[in-house]
Amino acid sequence: MTRFKSNYGYIIAILLLCMLAIGCTKPSAEKSGEEGAEKPAEGGEQAITLNEDQIKAAGIVVSPMRLRAVDERIEITGELEPVSTMEARVTSRLTGKVVSLPVQEGTWVHSGSPVAVLESTELAQADQAYHKAKAELDISAKSLARVRDMAKLGMFSKSAIENAKNDAAEARASLEGARASLDLAQKSHDRVKDLYSSGIAARKDLEKAEADLSKAKADEKSARIRYESATSRLSREEQNYRQSQGASKEVFDAELAYRQAEAEYESAVRSFEILGVSESNHGRTFTVTSPLDGEVSVLSISQGEAVIPTTPLMTIVDTRTLWLQINIYEKDLSRVKVGSAVSFTVSALPGRTFKSRVSFISPVMDEKTRNVKARVQVANYDGSLKLHMPVRGWISAGSNRQALMVPNSAIIKLGKDTLVFIEKDKPGTYAPCPVTLGVQLPDLAELKEGVKAGDRVVVKGGFYLKSESQKASMGEGE
After folding, report:
1. What confidence score (pLDDT) does residue 167 get?
2. Residue 84: is it exposed, middle or buried by C-beta count within 10 angstroms (0-12/13-18/19+)?
3. Fewer CB within 10 Å of terminal CB in the chain, N or C?
């Protein structure tokens, strides 16, 4: 018997929906019996009447229907990626061993702050060469000063012009050889640089070519200084000979030694520049610093690990601004432009909608998919959005079309039918009204048929009215 009543009530509900299809635009309900029960209204419609307490308890909110512009939208999907200029894969310019690691994954670092300290044999050798060159420069400077003082006192014998000529000839031959070597090193460097730019040569090959070029320049400078000193000395010798005055070979040798020491010192300083350390901050260890503000997203090394210049140490990314990469279908291209408003959501953050604008549209269409790639720059200062999060959203295409729009909370599903509840002429009386939906947005829906402008639609509390309607239908079935 109970099963029969249940089936009979369901049949009554179906008949009710058929009656509703006739129309629901002139509500009028007569209150009789208990409030909350379903009552017949004018035109055969079924209505529910509630008192003020029931309305308040159900949280029913009514809003008049008004025409409004339809914000037509283009559905999009995409993925959040780092901005290309805000992500860096950090490597070391030297071969060495990690002796200190002041950061971990998730550490926020600033541009120029230390992220790793390495001990390097290569740097230690350069440091040793630097200190040696500096010491020799100091010694040669003092020696030159002493020899000049002695020459003023006439403590050295006159130098022969022939010796000066031989020294000048040797210096000239040395200079020509150094210039030939420099020309060869320059050409080799340029070739390796072009190969490196094309991705063919390795970084270490470019650094070796730079070191060879630096040494060749230093050698050429040293030979040129020697030649200039030799020719100057020869000139002095000849002048002294004519004036019966002698010049000191010891002074010439001291000047040459000083200039050679000076060239060696400059070459040692240049080696530090090639290695990426400063003259004032060097030793056996060197510090790797962050190239940008950001968070250590990937840490690829551990303390004590040996690394080479091609070893990735870590990845640092600034996620305060992200790129949303999307595809635009060919059919939608005419409705999208740079500056079009974009809204999107991510499943990990329910209830939040993020807004931005299209910042770039590719000038190239994919031949296979017939899509065009576009990019949206997204602010992420609170860090809630994460890299590679999948995104669903829409682009506002703009429209001048007017339509009746209601919040999605007003839409009630009953089986295969869609309806809304409207408030009839009598306060507290509501009638279900079948509708036909048009454009559906994440928060709004268009009502194409079933209601008209001015109708007062229940935008909150419709599910309570649906429940009361079903109860009334079951009661009639009994």
Report:
1. 85
2. exposed
3. N
* CATH fold of the domain at 89-117+287-316: OB fold (Dihydrolipoamide Acetyltransferase, E2P) (2.40.50)
User: 386-411: b or e for each residue (b if 16 or more CB lie within 10 Å)?
Assistant: eeebebebbbbbeeeeebbbbeeebb
Sheet with 108-109, strands from edge to edge, namely 87-91, 312-317, 294-299, 108-109
**DSSP track, 395-451:** EE-----EEEEEEGGG-EEETTEEEEEEE-SSTTEEEEEE-EEEEE-SSEEEEEES-
pLDDT tens per residue across span 211-264? 988 998 999 999 889 888 888 888 877 676 554 444 467 778 888 889 998 898
Domain 73-83+319-396, architecture per CATH: Beta Barrel (2.40)
**Segment holding 29, helix H or strand E:** none
- Residue 148, both tokens: 């000049």
Return the CATH fold of 2-70+401-477: 2.40.420
The domain ranges of the chain are 2-70+401-477, 73-83+319-396, 89-117+287-316, 120-275
Length of the chain, please?
Answer: 478
Under 8 Å between Cβ of 308 and 323 = no
Class of domain 120-275: mainly alpha
Could you tell me the two tokens for 100?
Answer: 């200190």
Q: How confident is the model over 12-66, as pLDDT tens digits?
A: 444 444 444 444 444 433 333 344 444 444 334 478 888 888 888 889 999 998 8
Among 62, 116, 76, 109, which residue's Cα sits nearest to residue 94?
A: 116
- Which two structure tokens, joined as six digits, stand for 193? 């640089």
Query: For residue 97, which amino acid is it?
Result: K
3-class SS of residue 94:
coil
- The whole-angstrom separation of Cα 68 and Cα 25 is 20
Containing 158, the helix (H) or strand (E) segment is: none
DSSP letter string over 246-291? ---HHHHHHHHHHHHHHHHHHHHHHHHHHHT-BTTB-SSEEEEE-S
Within 10 angstroms of residue 340's Cβ, the number of other Cβ atoms is: 19
CA–CA separation, 10 vs 30, rounded Å?
Answer: 25
**Rounded CA separation 203/224 (Å):** 31
